[in-house]
Amino acid sequence: MGDKFFTGFFEKLVGVDYIRQDIIAGKSAQEIKEKWYCDVVKFKQQRRPYLLYGE
Fold it and tell me: Where is the Peptidoglycan beta-N-acetylmuramidase NamZ C-terminal domain (predicted)?
């Protein structure tokens, strides 16, 4: 994919750098999704006290 795809903005969009590294390493979408899922769960727990409405 090269440098045109993996700009600094890519990591800002996804929020972590390991997604780029995993794509370059050839990991499957499922592997990346499973790894990212843990971060999503943590984020949802952190934001819970600040929600105005329930999920």
Answer: 8-53
Select from 29, 32, 24, 34 the least CA-distant residue to 2: 24
Q: What does the alpha-carbon distance between residue 35 and residue 18 come to, in Å, rounded to a whole number? A: 9
- Residues contacting 24, CB < 8 A, separation 6+: 6
User: Cα separation of 11 and 3, whole Å?
Assistant: 12
Which letter does DSSP use for residue 28 in this model?
Answer: -
Tell me which DSSP letter residue 55 carries: -
Dihedral angle sign, alpha carbons of residues 15, 42, 33, 25: positive
- Distance, CA of 12 to CA of 49 (rounded, Å): 24
**What pLDDT, in 10s, does the model give residues 34-44?**
988 988 999 99
